[in-house]
Amino acid sequence: MSSAVKIIGAGLAGSEAAWQCARQGIAVELFEMRPVCSTPAHQTGDFAELVCSNSLKSDSENTAPWLLKEEMRRAGSLLLEIARQCAVPAGHALAVDRTTFAAKVTEAISRESLITIRREEVTHIDEGQLTIIATGPLTSDALSQEVARLSGASHLYFYDSISPIVEADSIDMAKVYLAARYDKGTADYINCPMSRDDYDRFYEALITAESVEAHDWEKLNYFEGCLPIEEIARRGRDTLRFGPMKPVGLKNPRTGQIPYAVVQLRQENLRADSYNLVGFQNHLKFGEQARVLRLIPGLENARFLRYGQIHRNTYINAPTLLEETLQMKQHPQVLFAGQICGVEGYTESIATGLLAGLHAAALVTGMQPIPPPRATAFGSLTHYITHADPAKFQPANITFDLLPSLDHKIRDRKERHRLQCHLALTHFDIWLDKAKPTPTLAPL
User: Fold this and answer.
1) For residue 2, what pLDDT is reported?
2) What number of other Cβ atoms are within 10 A of residue 38's Cβ?
3) Could you tell me how far CA 232 lies from the centroid of its own chain?
4) Strand 87-88 with 93-96, pairing
């Protein structure tokens, strides 16, 4: 039995990190403050609760999100495996029943004998104790102050958002249609088509709707990849039609025409009794949301299970603080993983948790952690968060822009991406053999 690793936070990153340590025979103390202390966004005390979308993004081969998930699969990601067990129809995306997903993760982690669960808030970090901080974007005020003490710098922050969810049987199916964009894959999305008049009414109601009042100390520094719909709308009358309401490739089978705009609904759970409004995160008062969103064709009588919300997300200035192994430069016994380290997205959070778990296990067993190669999705993600311009640092999803260019120019984008994925996976397999301590596999 090796000495324990302390992991703070049992979200996506912390749960995966704990599992990876346990797979290597490393004893772990996993701290989760919920349900003793909750957050503005969480609703349960389950591990790995998804509070925004239920989508883990594209599962189409040779896309950047697929590449990251394929590397995670090869590395033995627990959460990715559970996600596939809890998948709901979502076209080319991997989406999950969020309740089942969190319950299964909690069950798997709880029954692992090498993981001791502590349901309490952590307010102090011992920089001499091997610790993974994976408290996510809703890190408590007390722990945020402790991280600030260790880092010697103020936190950066942005505001993230939650999309509304409606009951399935409150959707008027006579006004909507099932379709996949460009008829690719199965028709898993409900599409609410809008005429120009429908869109104009919705747009005017949206931009004049009353928002939740911000506190005086809040600066609404939104993450560009997850803007509220009213913020997108304020940037121009047609911005929504080129964003979350893009109708391209969604022909209405009843009319044979492409609508002026479309609102897409994605299945929320395995029972298919609820759907979320894709990309419709917002900062409006709940009453205003009900009024405005019921202007969408098919949602005139919608019953909302959850309204959209905005919550504060906290992350560190990783380029100034972290090595590519996710260790702090000044305190190498302390590692960061998940959104608090500056990645954005569910798969990215799980991936950094997996990495932090492997690196912590290496440290316990006397090995030197080996960062993943730059050519891989893992390596490109960690390279970005540790080498970006600290003055302009913003969280990032995995994209091909983060991966290095090929040695030779290839005009065909699909072929270029295929070769980048092939190269990445070749490098990844070689790295994985070197980076992993000899595993003592924990059963699923």
Assistant:
1) 45
2) 13
3) 20
4) antiparallel
**CB-based contact 54:88 (threshold 8 Å):** yes
Tell me the per-residue pLDDT of 409-424, one tens digit each, with 9 for 90 and over.
898 989 999 999 999 9
Alpha helices in 209-285 (DSSP H): 229-234
Strand order in the sheet with 189-194: 177-179, 189-194, 261-267, 274-277, 165-167, 304-306
Helix (H) or strand (E) holding 148: helix 141-151
Q: Locate 268 and state its tokens.
A: 């929320």
- Enumerate the domain spans of the chain: 2-155+316-435, 162-311
Q: Among all chains, which residue has been given the structure tokens 């919550």?
A: 311
Measure the CA–CA gap between 336 and 390, rounded to whole angstroms.
17
Please tell me the CATH superfamily of domain 2-155+316-435, with its number. Answer: FAD/NAD(P)-binding domain (3.50.50.60)
Among the ranges given (19-33, 209-223, 371-385), the one the predictor scored with the smallest mean pLDDT:
209-223
Structure tokens given for 385: 């968060």
C-alpha distances in angstroms, 55 versus 58, 265, 266, 362, 442?
8, 12, 9, 32, 27
Q: How far is CA 233 from CA 205, 227, 308, in A?
A: 11, 10, 16
Q: Identify the pLDDT of residue 437.
A: 63
CATH architecture for the domain at 162-311? Beta Barrel (2.40)
d(C-alpha 369, C-alpha 434), whole Å:
10
